[in-house]
Structure formats: structure tokens, C-alpha cells
Write a structure and sequence with these properties.
The structure holds 2 protein chains of 2 kinds.
Chain A lengths: L1 H31 L6 H21 L5 H31 L4 H23 L8 H6 L1 E4 L2 E4 H23 L1 H11 L1 H6 L4 H23 L9 H16 L4 H21 L4 H15 L14
Antiparallel strand pairs in A: 1-2
Helix pairs in contact in A: 1-6, 1-9, 1-10, 1-11, 2-3, 2-4, 2-9, 2-10, 3-9, 6-7, 10-11, 10-12, 11-12
Chain B lengths: L5 H17 L4 H25 L8 H17 L5 H23 L4 H21 L9 E2 L4 E2 L2 E2 L5 H25 L1 H11 L1 H6 L4 H27 L1 E2 L6 H14 L6 H19 L4 H15 L5 H11 L1
Antiparallel strand pairs in B: 1-4, 2-3
Helix pairs in contact in B: 1-6, 2-6, 2-9, 2-10, 2-11, 3-4, 3-5, 3-9, 4-9, 6-9, 7-9, 10-11
Classes of the chains: A mainly alpha, B mainly alpha.
């Protein structure tokens, strides 16, 4: 029974983290039909920016928890929005209209470039920013000990998920974006500035990636390569849930999170295996993921 | 019976020329050439899939299977003959590809890319957790023999290169004909418009399946050759960034000619040898920038440099 509780708690905490990482990816794909491999780099950029800013703050003798969170939020939003704008305006803009698969390869090139840009800026030594994580302490649920920081990640993830849903379903911009998703050309004919909407979408998606990285920074050691590890996990989540669907990303994150937690508590050697096995199993029965929509083939 | 065409004669000629030139080359160049040819073989598989309109971000799966078959065959089955080891890898890979192929050939575009990536990451995940096989460090490949030669007593590096040239020549000759065969041509038709291919009474599923399995087998040979030359295998062979490098080389070379992947792989391996020494933290950046430049200015790869010149002259 204890194991079941541990699996559920770990599973949902991990799922909330997965959702944070995958949300930006699925938003960008949903609107722009670009599967953005560079999303992993934005995650890493957010983590590096937050970790180094937190490092300065704590080295200066700061010890306010709310300041630490403000620093994470500001750094992540700033670096995510700026990098997102630069990638969209500088590169993707001239590539629009090409095959989805070619766009995937183009963002792979961006990922490769950003990986080394980060090495040149931050070097290869790890960065640590464990202070907020340690300062928040742990709480006991029955006999299990859970970090408060992890529970906060869960809360942030729910807030971002609900916020995204509200943005897409209940606001003017959201309605315009849904019209673009539905039919790009007709929206354009109706006077929608598709180019600007793409810029906004990409910046928001990129910022979500950077926020995920910023929030994760206190939990991990920030080293080169974290983005490359994370992007395949995010892929597995969005493909399982159905590309381009926020609900799909949430459900996919929960499935993958619970599967991984089950494996860690019962058969730890299958940890990596299980994530992709779940994805493959879902794709066998639902070729476009749980919430994905099939598109007609060209004739 | 087809007559040997110009491409076949020049392939044989280049192979002989490289084999002779290698006798006067320093050891590092021989080793680099062997790696380049092995990589070129794996890239051939990626190119075969690209001709059918599919991009695989998981060709590392078969590369890794081929490598581990050599390692495991030598370690647990006591096989030392290189050809038998390569054959072992091909048999194992074909068996697995025949199962996976049933599933992945139902997918296109990014779904094919992601699913193939997932399968190679599954293998990576298994190998990383197999402590008996050295986990992330991998393990060494036993000293191998080739027919009546022994890599211990004779010049191992040179022997590996001769084997690689011979294997690559046979495969290149086969693929040159394969690309012009009805299956090879049907693959290109599927890339252009698969529904019309079905209208003509050709099963796209069957064509893609056969193509996928052959591409896997060739990827395995490349992996086996790398393992024999490098003397070591580790799980990163199945990591997705390695598959990404194969896609990079495939795009660099283009799908225009059987020789293109080998030329691209040679350029890639040579540049990497220098870049990793001179600017270890900028190597991926160079890759990324070159990839973007090729997509922008040479969408058919460097091979189009040759054909374009020819086209302008005539």
C-alpha cells in the first residue's frame, strides 16, 4: 500500500514536471506545425540563467525565498522571450512553408548551435542553485517525506496548464490562434496577421520551455547536455498525448509520469525503457496519440 | 543481365585506388578512412529511407545492434572471424527490423522520425542499465581474424580498412542496382505521392517494409565495421544524437548518388577529427550552421555540385 502511495505521489510530481517541459512544445506544434527540437535548449537556457542569477543573489548574502522565485521567473521569461524572438524572426521566418520534417531538421540545427553557445557562455562546469529547494524543507505525508519544492512545481504546473487552456479557449488571441490551427489560409484571408501570431506563439512556447528550466534549476545540477536529455522525454510525452493538444500533453505527462514512478519503485532497471515503451504502445493503437487528430493524406 | 555501367566501373576503380593509396598512408588516416566508410554505410540506410520520403532519427538502433553483435559474439560465442561477426549482426538486426518494420512503416513524417527515435532510445535505456555489459562504459571487442589473417599478427588497422572497402563496394554496387530496380523506383514514387502508387497496384506498405529492412541491415554492417575498427562498443551508439549525426551526413551528401554518403561521411569524419581538437566547444555549432546553410543553399546536398556543373555544360 505504501508503495502505491509512493508511486502516486512521485508519479504526479514527475508528471507535473513533464507537463511543464512539454507544454511549450505542444503549443508551438499546435499552432505552427513545427516540432521544435530546440525546445530542449530553451529549457537548458532557462536553467542556466536561473542558476547563475540565483548564484549571484545568494553569494551577495540574499536569503529571501520570494526573491529567489522572482529571480527565476524574471530570468526565465527574459531569456525565453528573447531567444524565442531571435529564433523565430531570424531563422524560422525564412523557412516557413517547408515540409514538417525539414522544419524538424532545421530546429535540430538550432539545438546543436545553442548547445555550444551555452558551453561558450557558461563553460562546462556544473552550476548549482539548491538554496530555494533546501530552504523550503520537507513535509511528511503519513510516513512518506515529500519536498515542498516538488509540491510547488506541481502547483505551478497546474497554474500554467489552466492558464494555457484559458488563453486558448477564452481570450481573443486564443480564438484567433484556434482559427489559424483550423485553417491558416482562410484566417489570413479574414485579416488575421498570421506572421505576428506565429511570433507570439513561438515566444510563448519558448518562454514556457525556459520557465520549466528555471524551475528545475534548484533541483538538478545544471550541466551541458541537460537540454538534449529533456527534449526526447518531452517528445515522448507530447507524442503519447497527441501532438498539439494541451489536454493531450497533460494526460501524456500523467501516463508517462506514473509509468516511470511504477518502474522506479518496482523494477528500477527498466526506467528509461518504460517511457518509450509506453509511447510506442500508445502509437500502435492510436497512431496520432491519445488526443491527436488524423489528417487526410495528399492525393 | 544488366551490363556493368559507368557508375559501377568508377565505384570499383575508386575502391581499388583507395585501397592502394591506403598502403602509403599514415595509420591515423587509415583509421579515419575506415570509420568514414563505416559511417557512410549507416548513412546509406538513412538515405534509402529518405528516398522513400522518411527521415529516421533512430538509425543508431541498427548501428548499435551491429556493434553489439560483434562485441557479444566475440565475448560469449567465441567467434573471432570478422565476416561471421558481421553476419551475426545482420541476422539479429534483420530479425528485429522485420518486427519493428511492421509498425513503423505505417507512419510518415515526424511520427516516423519520433517512433524510430523511441526505439533506439529503448535500446539505449536497456544497454545503460545492463551492468554485465559495462553499462555506459560499454566493453572492448575481442581481437578478430579475417579468413586466414589475424589482426594481432598482421596490420590490424590496414586489415580493417581493406575489409571495410570490400564490404562497402559490394553494398554500393548492390544499392546502385537497387535504386534503379522496381522497388527502388517505387520508393521514390511513394515519396512523391503514395496514394497514386497504390492506384497503380503497388503495395506501398510492402515496398516501404522491404526498404526499411534492407536499410536496417546495412546500418548494422556499418555498426559492426565501426566496432571492429574501434575495438570498443558502448550504448551511446544508440543515443539519438548519433542518429542525428547520420541524418546530418545524409543531408550533407544528398540522395543523388550511391557515392554521396561516403564522400559526406569522409568530410564529416575529417572535419570532426580537427574540430574536436581545435575547438571542442564549437564543434556542434559548426554542424548546426553547416546544416542550415545546406538546407538553404544546397537542398540536394553536395553531390548536386557535381551534377549542376554537368548540367550547365551540356
Amino acid at each position: 500500500m505504501l508503495t502505491v502511495w509512493a508511486i502516486l505521489i512521485d508519479g504526479f510530481i514527475y508528471a507535473s514536471w513533464l507537463f511543464l517541459v512539454a507544454a511549450g512544445l505542444t503549443v508551438i506544434y499546435g499552432v505552427m506545425r513545427i516540432l521544435n527540437m530546440a525546445h530542449g535548449s530553451l529549457y537548458a537556457l532557462g536553467a542556466y540563467a536561473a542558476a547563475s542569477a540565483l548564484g549571484w543573489y545568494y553569494a551577495d548574502g540574499g536569503d529571501q525565498l520570494w526573491m529567489a522565485f522572482a529571480i527565476i521567473a524574471v530570468c526565465a521569461v527574459a531569456i525565453g522571450a528573447v531567444t524565442g524572438l531571435a529564433i523565430e524572426r531570424g531563422l524560422l521566418r525564412i523557412m516557413y512553408g517547408r515540409d514538417e520534417i525539414l522544419m524538424l531538421i532545421i530546429t535540430f540545427a538550432v539545438l546543436l548551435i545553442l548547445e555550444d553557445v551555452m558551453k561558450l557562455i557558461w563553460g562546462t562546469t556544473p552550476y548549482f542553485a539548491y538554496q530555494p529547494y533546501a530552504a523550503m524543507g520537507r513535509i511528511n505525508i503519513d510516513v512518506l517525506t515529500v519536498s515542498r519544492y516538488d509540491l510547488m512545481v506541481l502547483a505551478v504546473s497546474i497554474v500554467i496548464g489552466v492558464g494555457l487552456w484559458f488563453w486558448l479557449e477564452r481570450t481573443r488571441i486564443g480564438k484567433i490562434l484556434r482559427s489559424i490551427i483550423h485553417d491558416r489560409e482562410v484566417s489570413k484571408a479574414m485579416g488575421v496577421n498570421v506572421g505576428r501570431m506565429f511570433t507570439i506563439t513561438f515566444m510563448i512556447g519558448a518562454t514556457l520551455g525556459a520557465i520549466a528550466g528555471g524551475i528545475t534549476a534548484p533541483i538538478i545540477s545544471v550541466v551541458p547536455g541537460i537540454g538534449i536529455e529533456v527534449i526526447v522525454l518531452a517528445f515522448a510525452v507530447v507524442v503519447t498525448g497527441g501532438l498539439g493538444s494541451i489536454t493531450g500533453a497533460a494526460i501524456g505527462a500523467i501516463i508517462v509520469g506514473l509509468a516511470r514512478a511504477t518502474s522506479i519503485h518496482t523494477m528500477p532497471e527498466l526506467e528509461l525503457f518504460i517511457i518509450y515503451a509506453v509511447m510506442a504502445a500508445v502509437l500502435v493503437f492510436r497512431p496520432h496519440g491519445l488526443f491527436g487528430q488524423a489528417v487526410a493524406r495528399k492525393i | 543481365m544488366m551490363k556493368a555501367d559507368r557508375t559501377e566501373l568508377s565505384l570499383i576503380g575508386v575502391a581499388i585506388a583507395v585501397a592502394i593509396a591506403a598502403q602509403f598512408s599514415p595509420n591515423w588516416l587509415v583509421f579515419t578512412l575506415t570509420l568514414a566508410i563505416s559511417t557512410g554505410l549507416v548513412v546509406m540506410g538513412v538515405v534509402m529511407l529518405m528516398r522513400a520520403g522518411l527521415v529516421s532519427f533512430g538509425q543508431g538502433l541498427f548501428y548499435c545492434l551491429g556493434g553489439y553483435a560483434v562485441g557479444l559474439g566475440g565475448r560469449f560465442l567465441g567467434i573471432t572471424d570478422a565476416l561471421v561477426l558481421i553476419g551475426l549482426g545482420v541476422v539479429a538486426t534483420v530479425a528485429i527490423a522485420m518486427i519493428l518494420g511492421l509498425l513503423v512503416t505505417r507512419y510518415r513524417e515526424i511520427f516516423f522520425a519520433m517512433l524510430s527515435l523511441a526505439f533506439s532510445m529503448i535500446l539505449y535505456g536497456i544497454l545503460v542499465k545492463s551492468h554485465g555489459l559495462g553499462s555506459t562504459d560499454g566493453f572492448g571487442v575481442v581481437d578478430w581474424t579475417l579468413l586466414w589473417f589475424d589482426s594481432e599478427t598482421s596490420d590490424g588497422a590496414n586489415m580493417a580498412l581493406m575489409l571495410a572497402i570490400a564490404v562497402a563496394l559490394v553494398i554500393a554496387l548492390f544499392l546502385n542496382r537497387y535504386f534503379k530496380s522496381s522497388i527502388g523506383l517505387a520508393c521514390e514514387a511513394i515519396r512523391e505521392n503514395e496514394v497514386r502508387v497504390e492506384y497503380m497496384g503497388i503495395s506501398r506498405q510492402q515496398i516501404l517494409y522491404i526498404n526499411y529492412v534492407i536499410a536496417a541491415a546495412i546500418g548494422s554492417v556499418g555498426g559492426s565495421m565501426t566496432a571492429l575498427a574501434a575495438g570498443h562498443v558502448d550504448p551511446t551508439m544508440a543515443y539519438w544524437t548519433i542518429s542525428g549525426e547520420f541524418v546530418f551526413i545524409a543531408i550533407l551528401g544528398g540522395t543523388g548518388h550511391v557515392a554521396a554518403p561516403f564522400i559526406a561521411a569522409l568530410i564529416f569524419t575529417l572535419v570532426r577529427t580537427y574540430a574536436v581538437e581545435l575547438a571542442p566547444n564549437a564543434w556542434q555549432m559548426i554542424l548546426g550552421i553547416v546544416l542550415l546553410l545546406i538546407i538553404l543553399f544546397l537542398p540536394k546536398g553536395i553531390w548536386s555540385l557535381f551534377t549542376r556543373k554537368k548540367g550547365a555544360a551540356s
